[in-house]
Amino acid sequence: MSDTVAASPAAPPRAATSRRPPSLAATGWSRGLVETKMFFREKDAVVFTFAFPIVLLAIFGSIFQGQLGDSPITVSQLYSAGLIGAGVMSVSFQNLGIGIAGDRDDGTLKRLAGTPLPRSAYFIGKIISVLVVAVLEIAILLTIGVLLYDLNLPSEVGRWVTFAWVFLLGITGSALLGVAVSSLPRSAKSASAVISLPFVVLQFISGVFIPFTEMPEWLMRIASFFPLKWMCQGFRSVFLGDAGAALEMTGSYELDRVALVLAAWVAGGLILCLTTFRWKSRRDG
């Protein structure tokens, strides 16, 4: 009798393990944490970003005191409201433009473009970092304005709603403009001068340091083309109330026009980003 060897049943094939890639929201949030940590590790950038508007508020608020004509609004209150708008544009337009120019020059953008990371996750991360810094800066400026310069926080819900949409439209348009302008500097070394100079000029002609109605008409026309003037006007409507409306050029805050101009800059900034943004520096071709 021949021995029969029973063949053992073959093991079923192991199913191939497939890992689903993380979602865009997850990668964007992760990149946002990285961008925020990188910002706060740069001590000099942190000090300059937060200290600059505070120092300006302290200087102008101390030098120019008293009320504006027959208005109950003080000069310090006017500066406090205007510097909030300048602070929002500083962390979005200026910091973002300089930061992206640096990422392009040192090869960070080029390396990220060659990884599985979705390109949009990079911008989501930048936006998260900008929002965090902007909220902190506004909180600091409001605290100083309330404690030292009698800035009144609004008690009506409607004015806080106005603050919310002015902030969102303003920071979105400024951030998109910062992304677009990041392609102008030829290197990271020139980025600060190329981007900071027009921003400083805008602050002086947009009603941040000088009341808008005291400037020549041709400067007012130039300032009215850019978003900073309208952001400051929207924030003045929130924190100065009806008493401050008489200080505006038309005697009104023109919130409908504020919304229209800021929304136009959001749309225009997006078009500029899509048509001008470069992942490589000029020396890479």
TrEMBL record:
It holds the Pfam family ABC2_membrane. The chain crosses the membrane at residues 45-66, 78-102, 123-148, 160-181, 193-212, 258-277. The keyword rRNA-binding does not apply. Residues 1-23 are annotated as: Disordered. It comes from the Bacteria. It is a multi-pass membrane protein. Keywords: Antibiotic resistance, Cell membrane, Membrane, Transmembrane, Transmembrane helix, Transport. Residues 44-280 form the ABC transmembrane type-2 domain. It is found in: Cell membrane; Membrane. Belongs to the ABC-2 integral membrane protein family. PANTHER family: NODULATION PROTEIN J. This is Transport permease protein. The lineage of its organism: Bacteria, Bacillati, Actinomycetota, Actinomycetes, Streptosporangiales.
